Amino acid sequence: MNPDVQKKILQFESFMNDVLRADLAKLAEKLDSKNAEMAEFLELKSIIKTLKDTNVDKSGFKTKVDMGNNFYIQANIEDASNILLDVGLGHFVEFSLDEALTVIDVRLKLFQRQIDNLRKQIARTNAHIKLVLIGIKDLQDMT
């Protein structure tokens, strides 16, 4: 085999393994993170709807709160008509339940767009990997 062709094949393999596969791993990690965030907001939306449907938002309710390491304490919520939402950068804003649902819907749409974009980037990176593999195969077949 021609030494120049072998050198090119090694360069392509190195690029694929060092750059493209690393990028793919980072994108997959970001996708998992966004999916987890979206799941949290979907769960929060479900909880708020349950609070509204059962009318405990005004009358209050008792619950158990996880203090960490599976240690729970009993909590008495007297008025659940307002909720604090993390709006980013560690800032929390108090919303009524209806306002919180609106904010959550906006955030869910944003997460969906981000997830769609990440999936497109993953597909593009996978396509680049396949192109490099095809190029390597063509170079090997030339000799």
TrEMBL record:
Q: Give a GO molecular function annotation for the protein.
A: transcription corepressor activity
UniProt keywords, alphabetically: Coiled coil
Residue ranges annotated as transmembrane are: none
Could you give one GO CC term from the UniProt record? Answer: mediator complex
Give a yes or no for keyword Coiled coil in this entry: yes
According to the lineage, what is the superkingdom?
Eukaryota
Q: Is Amino-acid biosynthesis given among the entry's keywords?
A: no
Q: Which GO terms describe its biological process?
A: negative regulation of transcription by RNA polymerase II; positive regulation of transcription by RNA polymerase II
Q: Which family does it belong to?
A: Belongs to the UXT family.
State what protein this is by name.
Answer: Protein UXT homolog
* Organism, as annotated: Cephus cinctus
The primary gene name is LOC107262916
